[in-house]
Write a structure and sequence with these properties.
single chain; 434 residues; alpha/beta; 32% helix; binds flavin-adenine dinucleotide
Length: 434
């Protein structure tokens, strides 16, 4: 008898933990296939530390073959689902089409950068959710400081030493915090730039930084940023980006060569193409993570609108914490569908959040108790080391060494601007030419 096939689309927090739970705790249940464009699970919460020159990018890439040896990896992108035939179509990394049959499908394709219809964004801003984008921004920051040193033109130097981050959620907040500490350290290595002002602006339409989280965390981040001279431009948006700078909604034109786009994410566009019901762009599922009327299809993580038991009528927030637990639950409910254990509804309540501000500062609220300063920073690092499925010792070593010897500052130039262009297939404002 052919073994049952479980196919998981996406090896992010949800898909990775689903595959791991199935292969570790229910190894005989079915054959597990994971379709993902890379051979690693990317631990996204530590990307800002890669940009900040504190962590080597390989430390945040968890090898799939090394940590999931019993799972079959298909390196590619799922392109469509034939629900009646129980087949997934995909394109492998060489662009060749293929198909796999499933008895149970777990859809966990996550999310992509969210664009807003603002002129110039796709040309001059860079998104932030891949290793390539994190490395590109690191190199770009180093390059701006080096070019500022090389020029005698004061206005060009000022523009190169002005950095704008749009989006003050946890990603933008951490990118701005680590970016500013990196450029500050770089300036110290350039004696000719001593005393030259270096501006960092964090722009958001919200009235506080990290607006989705506990206000006490926002106040902690606010204090740190004021102390470091980082300008928080709240209640403000970018209305246009050009090669020379960005126009803010408060009327100021900010000359800059750097626009980091951290305005959040939207579910992976594949969700729209599957032809199943969606809510806010996410696949509709019940509390058992199954798609209504399709009990063989599960969805979890950012791509799924999982009912949040703590906020009736709302889907769970797009966080790693939810995605990981939903992936594990999908695995257990699949095992239950084969008669091993009982299926359970999703019941997780938020355990708090950690925002690393670098330099021994953080805003954390474990179990909703606010902690900041060095204790908060130590808790944040400890949390990530426990949550990382591999490499915790190497991460600790990297982090400690770089804190002692200084952040990594060489531009490797491995990522070209074209590789990290924001996806322009999203809606453009009328009249804007790409
Ligand atoms: C920079 C950054 C920092 C963050 N920091 C935090 C944090 O500190 N705490 C927190 O709780 N959350 C954080 N988040 C959010 C968190 O990372 C996401 O909520 C979480 O990754 C969602 O998990 P997921 O498995 O649904 O999707 P993802 O982790 O995005 O994984 C989706 C996977 O699916 C793959 N995929 C996409 N399309 C296809 C396809 N067609 N076929 C096959 N595979 C596909 C992708 O390549 C990826 O591997 C952060 C996000 C970012 C971008």
């Amino acid at each position: 008898v052919a073994r049952q096939q479980v196919v998981i689309v996406g090896a992010g927090f949800a898909g990775y933990h689903c595959a791991r739970e199935l292969s570790r705790h229910h190894p005989g249940t079915a054959e597990v296939t994971l379709i993902n464009p890379t051979d690693y699970f990317l631990y996204l919460p530590l990307l800002p530390q890669v940009t900040g020159g504190l962590l080597n990018p390989q430390r945040v890439a968890v090898s799939l073959p090394a940590t999931l040896p019993r799972v079959r990896l298909v390196l590619g992108q799922a392109a469509g689902v034939d629900i009646d035939a129980g087949r997934i179509r995909y394109l492998d990394v060489d662009g060749r089409p293929g198909e796999v049959h499933y008895d149970r499908l777990v859809f966990a394709a996550g999310s992509v950068n969210r664009l807003l219809p603002i002129p110039g964004i796709t040309d001059f801003a860079h998104g932030y959710r891949s290793i390539a984008e994190a490395l590109y921004l690191h190199d770009h920051l180093v390059r701006q400081v080096e070019l500022a040193d090389a020029t005698d033109d004061a206005s060009q130097r000022a523009a190169r030493l002005t950095f704008v981050v749009v989006g003050a959620g946890y990603t933008g907040t951490e990118v701005a915090a680590h970016g500013q500490l990196l450029t500050r350290e770089l300036l110290r290595r350039h004696p000719r730039l001593q005393g030259t002002p270096c501006r960092w602006l964090l722009v958001d339409t919200a009235e506080r930084v990290i607006p989705g989280l506990d206000p006490r965390m926002s106040r902690a981040a606010d204090r740190v940023f004021r102390r470091r001279g980082l300008e928080m431009r709240l209640g403000t948006s970018v209305t246009e980006a050009t090669a020379d700078g960005v126009q803010l909604s408060d009327g100021e034109f900010v000359p800059t060569r750097t626009l980091a786009w951290c305005v959040g994410v939207r579910p992976d566009p594949l969700v729209d193409r599957i032809g199943l019901p969606i809510n806010q762009g996410r696949l509709v599922v019940d509390e058992y993570l199954t798609v209504p009327d399709h009990l063989d299809i599960y969805a979890c993580g950012d791509a799924a609108a999982v009912p949040d038991p703590g906020r009736p009528g709302q889907p769970t927030a797009m966080t790693a914490q939810h995605a990981q637990r939903q992936g594990q639950l999908a695995a257990r409910n699949i095992a239950a569908s084969y008669g091993i254990g009982h299926r359970r509804p999703y019941r997780h309540h938020d355990l708090g959040f950690a925002v690393d501000l670098g330099g021994g500062a953080a805003a954390v609220n474990p179990f909703h108790v606010p902690v900041s300063g060095p204790l908060g920073a130590a808790m944040t690092i400890g949390y990530h080391l426990l949550a990382l499925p591999s490499n915790p010792l190497s991460v600790t070593a990297d982090w400690t060494l770089d804190l002692l010897t200084g952040r990594q500052a060489a531009q490797l130039g491995l990522v070209t601007p074209d590789t990290v262009r924001l996806d322009s297939s999203q809606p453009k404002p009328s009249g804007h030419a790409a």
